[in-house]
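Consider the tokenized backbone below.
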């Protein structure tokens, strides 16, 4: 079951609210002495997270299906980068990371128990049965926090955002679980930032602009790549290319900090080459959240040009997170029951 992005939380007596976890969405199947972890895209994930399997084997009854999120908590809260690094082909590396960056499974739904399919039941019933199921579980499996008070849920934006909780999910407690249906609602905080256009990538056929590459300056005056935006019409892409063509250049190596990425195991053969432009244009974009090294997790959304703002004022301090340390136990205690 999926969620639709909305600008505000729905309110009413049938709505419950949960923190939106920043991890891997996982269906956990336990049948006898076998445990399978399956991603939202139907990818088998069991081999990558051996440290959580024993906790599922301790549950009773011996056959259950749970819906939830695998997360890793680091010194600055939820650490999605560390989670991505767990997907590694080498068994020795998997075993090492399972000890140094162990994952936790945060459950928010119970889809089957024993031989009973619980999906037709209302969420309020599934939630209560999930609570009973996890009452004796060890800390590797946690029950996500839930409230029926929208004011408390909105307060999570303030209290839990620094820990990596990236929004709130609203669910109708009278509703059955319908796979593929976007009947839940998710609300994320909207963040904006002024960036320097440092380059662009071509479209796949190199006939037009594919994306603008965005940068921010550090205190030493070096320009760091932070992400891209590509939310343009075909006509706008042509106009952008005409505007950028006279600015194409080779940026001095000493002026760059972090550059746009080169091919990696995540790029899947995509063309990652890019064209540099003189850092003269400033634009405002919206983004959902950052990941390590202060990069946008997803493509930013184009908002407008900022001809009134000098490029050198587009600095990393617009997006730098709090440096306060967050202990793993504090994050999980705040957002789970």
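A designed sequence for it:
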């Amino acid at each position: 079951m999926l969620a639709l992005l909305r600008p505000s939380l729905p309110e009413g007596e049938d709505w419950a609210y949960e923190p939106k976890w920043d991890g891997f969405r996982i269906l956990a199947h336990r049948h006898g002495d076998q445990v399978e972890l399956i991603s939202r895209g139907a990818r088998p994930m069991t081999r990558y997270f051996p440290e959580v399997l024993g906790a599922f084997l301790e549950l009773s009854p011996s056959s259950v299906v749970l819906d939830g999120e695998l997360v890793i908590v680091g010194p600055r809260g939820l650490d999605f980068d560390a989670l991505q690094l767990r997907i590694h082909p080498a068994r020795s590396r998997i075993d090492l990371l399972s000890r140094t960056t162990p994952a936790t499974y945060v459950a928010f739904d119970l889809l089957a128990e024993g031989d009973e399919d619980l999906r037709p039941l209302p969420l309020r019933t599934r939630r209560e049965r999930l609570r009973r199921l996890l009452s004796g579980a060890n800390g590797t499996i946690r029950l996500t926090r839930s409230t029926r008070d929208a004011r408390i849920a909105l307060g999570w934006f303030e209290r839990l955002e620094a820990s990596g909780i990236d929004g709130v999910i609203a669910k109708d407690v009278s509703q059955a679980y319908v796979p593929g249906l976007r009947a839940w609602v998710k609300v994320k905080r909207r963040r904006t930032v002024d960036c320097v256009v440092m380059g662009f990538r071509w479209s796949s056929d190199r006939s037009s602009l594919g994306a603008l590459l965005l940068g921010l300056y550090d205190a030493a005056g070096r320009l760091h790549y932070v992400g891209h935006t590509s939310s343009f019409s075909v006509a706008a892409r042509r106009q952008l290319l005409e505007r950028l063509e006279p600015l194409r250049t080779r940026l001095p190596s000493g002026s760059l900090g972090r550059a746009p990425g080169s091919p990696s195991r995540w790029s899947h053969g995509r063309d990652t080459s890019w064209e540099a432009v003189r850092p003269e244009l400033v634009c405002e974009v919206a983004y959902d959240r950052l990941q390590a090294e202060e990069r946008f997790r997803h493509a930013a959304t184009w908002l407008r040009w900022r001809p009134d703002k000098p490029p050198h004022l587009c600095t990393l301090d617009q997006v730098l997170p709090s440096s306060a340390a967050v202990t793993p136990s504090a994050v999980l205690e705040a957002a789970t029951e």
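DSSP finds seven helices and 20 strands in the chain.
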